[in-house]
Amino acid sequence: MGTEGDDFRVIAGRYRLEARLGRGGMGVVWRATDQLLGRRVAVKELIQDDTLSAEQARGRRDRTLREARAVAQLSHPHIIVVHDVVEDGERPYIVMELIDGGSLADRIAEHGPIGPEEVARIGIALLGALRAAHTAGVLHRDIKPANVLLDGDGDRVVLTDFGIAQVAGATTLTETGSFVGSPEYTAPERMSGASTGPESDLWSLGALLCTALSGESPFRRDSLGGILHAVVFAEIRTPAQAAPLLPVVRGLLERDPERRLGAAEAERLLRTFLETGRTPPPAASGYTPTRADLPRTAPLRPADARERSTRGVLVAALLVAAVAGAGVSAAALLVNRDGDGGGGSPTSSAPRETTGPASGPTASGAAGDTASATSSPNATPSRSATRSSDAASSGSAAPASDDRPSAPSGYRVAEDPEGFSLAVPDDFTRAPQGERVFYLSPGETFRLGIKIDDPEPGGPLGVMRRAAAKGPDTNPGYHDGRVTETMHAGNPAALWEFTWNGFSAAEGARHTYDLCWEANGRLYDVWVSAPVGKVREAREYFDVAIDTFTAR
């Protein structure tokens, strides 16, 4: 139901805004009347951003108008018709056809899951719309149930809201480096901020089909960080209701865009289902099952872990961007790992941070079940060439002091009086706290912690699991924590990652990476904590610290 305004406004001398139909991140949609032609229309009013300079505002307005006009050239029965693009008071308005009916999101909220036959019909309609848009060089970039309209009889399915679409050859609506969209329906590759193609819209469609079938997105979590982690890292568990259309859903939710099910093949499978009641497997070239589609029966091997570790970079950049479109600071999206000050482990060997605050919003944990932190492709240096293979094979924690690794550019080797050395950024300062030693960035945004202790029952894995169990008691707002068994330099190790709310509202949400390993009769624990919006830097500091750590 629209909310009647106090009075009607007429824009561009022609369109009378009569009732507000809805509001989104990019604008307000009104029911209106085209007074010239005497027909009912929908008008989208683009919201002004008061944080932009006059020049930036003009640039955004120009891009909006250019892209809206490009989208207006699309002609397909399942794409909203754009009648006009106008300006009034230097504010852009998009005039569209009025669909007398609610959205797919409304339908699901009011009536629950939808049967597979109707979902297949909706899927075919949207695939047709996307194929038309993609052929014209337009990526929608915000496929979700709220942007799919159903007319009163439910016979017509209409894809709407191309407000953040990307048009080939044009600067995108959002400024370079920002990200907009709905995280639950955003493809993993888009989270990296890298150039993407039609495959990203198809991933979003796969998530939408799951939502329509089960009533809930497969990536819904209690926090933004949890959503991001689910999209990029976690095993994708399709709902039971998706079984009739499983080959299509799984094919569209393939994380590798090059192996993702194509639009033509997806449409063929859905039509076959409507005709026969069965969905055949995709053509050999269309889709190959991935590890994420299969039951997890054993821990990831190191090679698998490295593969997932590369996704950590995606998550970080992805997070940065995603929040911008959701009205949250871009930093909030990124994930880092917190175990140090904010999040150290509560047990004797894991860190518990007691230093000052940091800043930043929360995002989901990153490497999770990735391989040993030392093998992460995100590390600036690999293990130093000066580290001898004999030391690694013998299980020693590090080479002798005369074999200490060199520091990469921007770092220095800290020879700590507690009997270890490692590379830390040039501007980090030492701050011992009881059994723990911290190296802190200016303002304590980044906190690198080290602790050396005696071995404990259960080894590193037991230590980290006990710490994680106490996470909610030691780290306010603790969530998305996970402990993974791994190896470090040939020694048993465990990686703990989690996100938490920080010790104060001023500090903001943080993420922690914490690696614990046992070597030469000692238990070593190294962690980095940072605002969730600083995941790239934090992951690098963590990897460098682990790769260059030497016990003397």
Automatic annotation (TrEMBL):
The enzyme's E.C. designation: 2.7.11.1
Protein name: non-specific serine/threonine protein kinase
InterPro entries: Kinase-like_dom_sf (IPR011009), Prot_kinase_dom (IPR000719), Protein_kinase_ATP_BS (IPR017441), Ser/Thr_kinase_AS (IPR008271)
Region (Disordered): 272-308, 340-414
Transmembrane segments: 313-335
Protein kinase domain residues: 15-274
GO molecular function: ATP binding; protein serine/threonine kinase activity
Keyword vocabulary terms for this entry: ATP-binding, Kinase, Membrane, Nucleotide-binding, Serine/threonine-protein kinase, Transferase, Transmembrane, Transmembrane helix
Residues that, per the record, bind ATP: 44
Domain of life the protein comes from: Bacteria
UniProt biased composition (Low complexity): 354-410
